[in-house]
Amino acid sequence: MPQELLIIGAGEFADIAYEYFTVDSPYTVVGFAVERAHLAEDEKFGLPVVALEDAVARFDPATTEAHVAITSTQLNRVRQRLVGVAREHGYTLANFISPRAMVWRTATLGDNVFIFENNVVQHGVHIGDGCVLWSGNHIGHQSRIGDFSFMSSHVVVSGYCTIGPRSFLGVNATFADGVTIGADSLVGMAAVINKSFPDNGLILNGHPAEPSRVSSYRYYKLKPPA
Amino acid sequence: MPQELLIIGAGEFADIAYEYFTVDSPYTVVGFAVERAHLAEDEKFGLPVVALEDAVARFDPATTEAHVAITSTQLNRVRQRLVGVAREHGYTLANFISPRAMVWRTATLGDNVFIFENNVVQHGVHIGDGCVLWSGNHIGHQSRIGDFSFMSSHVVVSGYCTIGPRSFLGVNATFADGVTIGADSLVGMAAVINKSFPDNGLILNGHPAEPSRVSSYRYYKLKPPA
Amino acid sequence: MPQELLIIGAGEFADIAYEYFTVDSPYTVVGFAVERAHLAEDEKFGLPVVALEDAVARFDPATTEAHVAITSTQLNRVRQRLVGVAREHGYTLANFISPRAMVWRTATLGDNVFIFENNVVQHGVHIGDGCVLWSGNHIGHQSRIGDFSFMSSHVVVSGYCTIGPRSFLGVNATFADGVTIGADSLVGMAAVINKSFPDNGLILNGHPAEPSRVSSYRYYKLKPPA
């Protein structure tokens, strides 16, 4: 019997997750859940949309897995928070790995990872919990992608890199071999990261990239982690 | 029985189209047609090359489809014009979709579309008539590519973008989410489009991209559309 | 019976080559060889590591092929030299072509070529001896890649280009149609090559790229070829 799946979220990414899980995975989507404050419809694709607060009553965590399909809102903190809520509710968090992606057998993945088509995850890579790899990214051998990071599309992370947790990497950003960026980095589209920027909360743009004077914390009005 | 196909054009792209349709599609190429003024050979790969003006007599539109395999000559106007001629002759215009491309089931395509390997056409995208997507481009969810546009290779069109008709997008150009560019845009290689440029006929280059003072109409010596 | 393969090299690339040949090729890796001066272990993945000088005694070139898995050390000269040594020992040099790469049937390849996943080698391309195409590169129709060149990842070589031998192309570098670069070029990450730079030994960086005042020969402390 196919594994049942609850999608947490109801925006465009939830629609896309519904499509991808339905067409290209062994899961069968059985419903959607959003926080009650955001509940705006009670049906989607003919499936129920319920308040996340009540989800357990309707979708038993013993038989239904969950996937939090939220983009990079608030520098990935919403996705991180809802993954925590789903875990508290007892849900096992499912991964989506496109059959058109290459994830090498020596790579390791956390939970609630969404990997779109044409991504390459090479030898020895680690992808943390809650990461989204949109489309066509390259993660070079031995690199580590921190929890809840979001890679948009066509990003090149060369070998032996470290990407801090909750970072956002814009389309076509490029990283040299062996560089490190800190937590909560916001890397602009087509930025060229040719050296390490280990500080947390940097906004990095340009060719080559330089940090902005404004931090990602100020930009998103977020508290830096303690 | 495999569907018979007439290729309109006889240059390098026609050679490539012959290869791709032959190896990776259900079509069987049965000949080539070019406008009489450009007729320089009467055989190619052992197949007849005829004047487009006489093509109907030799290749019956009731049993043979056609594909106009012309690159971006005159900012895509030659391909646009010959697609019109082929339609007047009564030909159904065939698409080539590489089996190594991903075109999501919710995307819609016009006629005479050529999609090379490793392209990604995501959820809800529309690709207009006569578009060429060379190799390895990403068209993000809900974006719209105007008729007769030409995307070279490794272009990233993020989500919710609008590309005006007959635009040329150079290799590795990058578009932010939700931007619009006008008709007849000429986007340089590796240009970084981080905001909308809705005017028609702009030449856009640089990181970030800025419009040139010369328009694409002047650059190609073309009349702007009325 | 699967073909036996000796990997020459014992670093990270040798590990990766072991993985790729083992999982995704008809070859069975039977051992590793390194020059005696670099011999630091006698076993790897349960297989013998021998001195290259003694390899023939242990691994008969009549029944075992070889692949030199060395990255771009000394601007690809180490790989070039060891391919020469392997040939002197009588080894046939094997290619690795990822089943996830597209190499068009009209392309031609030299020996000891390593092509990772998601590479595209289009119509009429030639890839010289000893080239490494890391991941997700595009080699456009009719382009020629000189012997012992190293392309990192997501490089776009457009159509009709010529890349001089032993060149290193950094991640996400982009080449316009029809450009030529000389031998021993060192092309930086995300460099935008919008015209030809036919001189040998140039270091090219930037958007658009300009040559550095220092040559690649001086940078790597190498003698220019006579």
Provide the structure class of chain A: alpha/beta
CATH topology name of the largest domain in chain A, in short, is UDP N-Acetylglucosamine Acyltransferase, domain 1
**What is the tally of helical segments of chain A?**
4
Tell me, what is the CATH class of the largest domain in chain A?
Mainly Beta
Oligomer: homotrimer
- Strands of chain A, count: 24
Mean pLDDT score of chain A: 97
Q: From the alpha-carbon coordinates, what is the Rg of chain A to the nearest angstrom?
A: 17 Å
Strand content of chain A: 25-35%
User: Based on the structure given, which CATH architecture of the largest domain in chain A is correct?
Assistant: 3 Solenoid
Report low-confidence residues of chain A grouped into runs of 5 or more. none
What count of domains describes the coordinates of chain A?
2
C-alpha geometry of chain A: globular
CATH superfamily annotation of the largest domain in chain A: Hexapeptide repeat proteins
Strand order of the largest sheet of chain A: 6-9-12-15-18-21-23-24
Question: Biggest sheet of chain A, open or closed, and with what strands and sense?
Answer: 8 strands, mixed
The biggest chain-chain interface is: A-B, 22 and 25 residues
Percentage of helical residues of chain A?
10-25%
SSE topology string of chain A:
EHEEEHEHEEEEEEEEEEEEEEEEEEEH
Distance between the termini of chain A: 45 Å
Protein architecture, described:
3 copies of one chain form a homotrimer. Chain A starts with a strand and ends in a 6-residue tail after the last helix. The longest helix of chain A has 13 residues, at 12-24. Chain A has 4 helices and 24 strands. The first copy, chain A, folds into 2 domains: 3-88, Rossmann fold, CATH 3.40.50.20; 96-209, UDP N-Acetylglucosamine Acyltransferase, domain 1. Chain A is globular and about 50 Å long. Chain A has helices spanning 12-24, 55-58, 77-88, 216-220, and strands at 3-8, 27-34, 43-44, 47-51, 64-68, 96-97, 102-103, 108-109, 114-115, 120-121, 126-127, 132-135, 138-139, 144-145, 150-153, 156-157, 162-163, 168-169, 174-175, 180-181, 186-187, 192-193, 203-206, 209-211. The first copy, chain A, has an 8-stranded mixed sheet with strand order 6-9-12-15-18-21-23-24, covered by helices on one side. The first copy, chain A, is α/β, with parallel strands linked by helices and 226 residues long. The mean pLDDT of chain A is 97. In chain A, strand 23 (203-206) and strand 24 form a beta hairpin. Chains in contact: A-B, A-C, B-C. At the A-C interface, strand 19 of A face helix 1 of C.
